[in-house]
Design brief:
The protein has about 170 residues and is mainly α. It has a domain of about 110 residues. The longest helix has about 130 residues. About 10% of the residues are buried.
Amino acid sequence: MLASGFVLVILGVSFSGENHTAQLEDQASKIEELTKENEDLKQENLTLTEEVENLQSEKTKVEQELESKNNEFQTLKEKASNHASEVDDLHNQIAELMTTITQKEQEISTLNAKAEEQVATASADSSSGEKNVYYKNCTAARNAGAAPVKTGDPGYARHLDRDGDGVGCE
């Protein structure tokens, strides 16, 4: 009996030794898997770190570009403001010129009326035989029906006779 107990103990130890070997092999296999997984994670970490660095570099470039575009925008905004001011100035100048044109047209109208009155007076005087007729220029003489005017005619004056031949407003 003692011998059989001893055999049983030896068999139990050998079975328990095999069980420990299987557990050790199992653990070694798990360690290998975990080591491989750890290496894979390290590689993935390196890849992600590179991506983060690239993204940070791109972010810096985009921020610089944004700042540049903002500066450009501010410059364009200032130019637009200056152009708006110039446009306002030009509108004011146009308004002033339109006022001046209106005034000059009124002056021309007044002068035309006076000239027509003078022509009518000159025509009346020339038909009545007066010698005091005066024509400011050849247009006035023509409008009065007196062109060409000759030396001795009513209204003849040297300023109407450019070539000095005695006949004005030829």
